[in-house]
Amino acid sequence: MADSISRQFATWAAALKYEDLPPAVVDKVKALTLMALTSAPLGSVTARGKAAFALAKSEEARPGGATVLVDGMSATRLGAAFANAEVMWASGLIDSYRMLTHPGPALIPVALVNAELEGKNGKDLIVALAAGYEFLTRLCDDFIPATAAQGFRPGPVYATMGGAVVAAKVLGLDANGIVSAIDFAANLAGGILTGGGASAIHEPNAARQGAAAALIARRGGLVGSETSIEGPSGFYKTFAGTNKGDVAIAFGGNMEIDLATVTAGLGTEYKLLTIMFRMIATAGYNQPVVDLIVEMMQANGLQTADLDVVEVSMNYIENLYPSQEAFGRADSRRAGEGGRTKFFAANAAVYGGFPVVGGKSFAPEGTNLDTDPAIVDFMANHVKIIPVWGHPMFSPSVTLKTTDGRAFFGHYPYARMEWNLDQLVERLQDCMPGYPGGKPAFDRLVEVVRNLDEQPSMQPVIAAVAG
């Protein structure tokens, strides 16, 4: 009989060494780390970032504890993880996997605070992040829509699990300890869409809970369930509605998921390589829509006045998001708001782009894009969203129809967003207008992260984002 899903992951993660990681995985982990660390200074100047610092100082301060990034104060391990995650999340500059999970703002803080307090080096950090990211991506891969259909926000649910493996690896737990940490994380995971501002604390809480799960496992005295993921009352049954793989809804329309695929190729095929980077503070699938429309207009010499209709074809689930009710209907193919895709398509067509986090505005100074007559008119009269059953996710197709009867077609494959470190560094240049310390500070951070596997401790990393 095959080992349980938890046992397979735990055995792999416990034995994982830096030398086992392919160069592309090391490079991707560095890119993911850079994204999160770039987001911290940007988030620190927001109201939410400042509130995170204030809460940590009043409730979590601890001399000799873990460092709260940018601010530099010392806090409890769990308090620093929460605060650092809040600051990263506040910026809106985050990574994204399969639309509805954003691992970085949870996993990176967990890795940093534990590596700092446990005296680990850069290679240790990379290995722990590789293990946690791979666990998260494989665990959630085909189950994300089904999790949303159950009423849970997938991001924090899966980030708690990934964070537990990250922390367990940094803490040096053996396979038995990691199995327990996974079970404890499954019992601590959560996050629902109540319609208020609570989603802003989902990933920060996932960071805290994931780290706590590993600490409890290290403490001893409790042994986690061997089948906490696929058991009859386990993680998948609770958060995806099934422990057999017969999901109610899926990105590609396949409602039968073979649980063996969750661990197939573990250690040789890395799903974390396909994580994308969200530069615009919106649903990640809107980013390629903006880029594609701008590229097509420039390539064909088109101006806004030339456009009659902009048609955007996208995955039908992307079009339904963020409707929790719609996610519960496997046969729902009606047109929805598409996470404001019409709005972002209109900005690309009217103003030639949309500002990235920290980036310049494309519209005239003082323009309120939500009420701007040019945007409102273009959305209402010139943008058409076409939800397509089974269309590749994060891979929009666009047809530009002109007033003189011409038509131009373009497609944006998801692979274009699977940036490596160099590609990410280039794209992050667009964030520099709003980056605290400007380009010199960012360049110092890039240098530290590029050489992360040579860092003897976390101090150079922490110093690179000090305020």
Entry keywords:
467 residues; alpha+beta; 2-methylcitrate dehydratase PrpD; 60s Ribosomal Protein L30, Chain: A; four-stranded mixed beta sheet; two-stranded antiparallel sheet; 19 helices; 48% helix; 9% strand
Q: Mind explaining what this structure looks like?
A:
This protein has 467 residues and is of the alpha+beta class. It has helices at residues 5-15, 23-44, 47-59, 77-91, 104-117, 122-140, 144-149, 154-170, 175-188, 202-219, 235-240, 286-299, 316-320, 324-327, 341-351, 373-382, 421-428, 438-450, 459-463; strands at residues 61-67, 74-75, 94-96, 276-278, 307-315, 383-388, 397-402, 407-411. It has two domains: 5-275 and 419-463, Orthogonal Bundle (2-methylcitrate dehydratase PrpD), CATH 1.10.4100; 286-414, 60s Ribosomal Protein L30, Chain: A. The protein is 48% helix and 9% strand. A hairpin with a 4-residue loop joins strand 7 and strand 8.
* CATH fold node name of the largest domain: 2-methylcitrate dehydratase PrpD
- The CATH homologous superfamily of the largest domain is termed 2-methylcitrate dehydratase PrpD
Into how many domains do the coordinates divide?
A: 2
Gap from first CA to last CA: 54 Å
Low-confidence stretches: 328-338
Report the order of strands and helices: HHHEEHEHHHHHHHEHEHHHHEEEHHH
Strand fraction band? 5-15%
Largest sheet properties: 4 strands, mixed
The structural class is alpha+beta
Shape: globular
The largest beta-sheet arranges its strands as: 6-5-7-8
Number of helices in the DSSP assignment? 19
Assembly state? single chain
CATH architecture of the largest domain: Orthogonal Bundle
Average pLDDT rating: 93
